[in-house]
Amino acid sequence: MRAIALFAALGIAAPAVAQTAPAAPVASPAVDPARLAAAQRLFDVIMPPATRQQMMQAMLQPLLGNISKGMTSNPQFAQAMSADPKVAAAFDRFMAQQQARTIEMIQTSLPQMVQAMSRAYARRFDVAQLGELERFFRTPTGAAYLRESMTIMSDPDVAAWQRTMMTDSMNRVQQDAMAFAKEVAAIKQGETK
């Protein structure tokens, strides 16, 4: 059972940072070319092309850090790590691998993200609204908002909330995984009779 609990503790990070197979393409509604052009200009202000990768990595670091802290704050997992340095080393390797894979995924998918975000903005705002947003984000207040919004996940209150959510989620997943394992064992036991 301890192995199941440890597996469940590690498994909780997977949805947040795991690589997934690309989803089948979904036909998206057409976007007005003028709105799309305005949205692309806006997105270039929100995430300037020269700094996009660095901005994405800066947003990612606190998130992965909070996932790691949330996992290690789980008493069972913390005990397993403190009882065996190999478990702690394996966890460090796991988190480093997840970080590297996530950064690689961001780097390769960034152009598609920019296009998707531009199309999303174009669907939600008309040309005049997109122009107003662009003008706002070019003001000192707008620029300050953009700069600070990219680091909001590292705010102590947000980080504490994420860690609490991760710990609660890990505890729930562990309980659910153990219940599931018992159910499967009972099913298998019933098949052998």
CA radius of gyration: 22 Å
**Fraction of residues in H or I helices:** over 70%
**Structural class based on helices, strands and sheet pairing:** mainly alpha
Report how far the terminal alpha carbons are from each other. 23 Å
- Count of helix runs: 9
Low-confidence stretches: 1-20
Anisotropy-based shape: elongated
How large a portion of the residues is in β-strands, by DSSP E? Answer: under 5%
Order of helices and strands: HHHHHHHHH
Number of strands: 0
The profile of the biggest β sheet is: none
Instruction: Report the mean per-residue pLDDT as an integer.
Output: 81
Report the oligomer. single chain
What distinguishing features does this structure have?
193 residues, 9 helices, elongated, mainly alpha, disordered N terminus
Give a brief rundown of this model.
This protein is mainly α and 193 residues long. It has 9 helices and no strands.
Fold topology:
Elements: H1 2-11, H2 14-17, H3 33-46, H4 52-72, H5 75-83, H6 85-124, H7 127-138, H8 140-149, H9 156-192
